[in-house]
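REQUEST FORM: STRUCTURE PREDICTION
Request ID: SP-0412
Submitted by: Lab K.M.
Chain count: 1
Length (residues): 295
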Amino acid sequence: MMKLTKTRADILFDFCNYTLISILVILVLYPLYFVVIASITDPNLVYSGKLLFFFEKITWDGYRRLFAEPSIWLGFKNSLWYTVTGTMINVVLTVTAGYVLSRSDLIGRNVFMFLLVFTIFFGGGLIPSYLLVKDLGMLDTTWAMIIPNAVSVFNVIIARTFFQSNLPGELLESAQMDGCSNLKFFWKIAIPLALPIVAVMVLFYAVGHWNSYLQALIYLKSNSMQPLQIILRNILIMNEGSDLQDLQDGSLEQQKKLELMKYGIIIVSSLPMLILYPFLQRYFVKGALVGSLKG
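STATUS: Completed
RESULT:
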């Protein structure tokens, strides 16, 4: 095999590409890295601007103060329940709707698609949504965090396009000639082929549920049902209130510890999704999302 020799222009082009990509990677990763090291570093170093790249004078005061709150574990449990249950419902509804709408033999398919897309551009707003949830008796219940956003129309369109692009009609015809029913075709053939898009949907929905904040603020009143994001907010507000009083008394040290706690809150709230992402990343590498959006 003949090996092509790179010209000076090719070498310069590669150098510019690698340089630009390296700069972008540093710009993305360094803030994350800084938050990690700042959450366990002496706040005096953070305040003075001396903390740049390396761990110095490690302290766990921020995490100790954070996990000393018993409500943290309750928030973790609630958020985990909302995320797992909500994501399962989301994925089931999204994938089944996407598959059905991808079938050319579905009567009224264009009408259903029009009704779905219509909801993207026109919505009732916050007050009608609240009144609907209230009339359905879902206020201050688990379902208020799950049912109102059970299906994302945008994700249904992605799933529909994926099935249209990756499930040719000939495959369905061949299965039907062998006596395969629609339900069996969906379960035995369509779903195994759709695992990449299922993984993408799991990640999208799981991140949305884990970071859910506004819904809990509007629909939930009981402290025992609050997700992690609301509890972390409340902890931060309570500490800021107490530390403002300390500052009036001349205590700057308490304010520095509060900053340390803020970095810890960022880590605690982000870590579960950062752990989940590597297990689903390979589906993005395969181009599942790009492939589902083409056309």
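NOTES: The chain has a mean pLDDT of 79.
Reviewed by: T.R.
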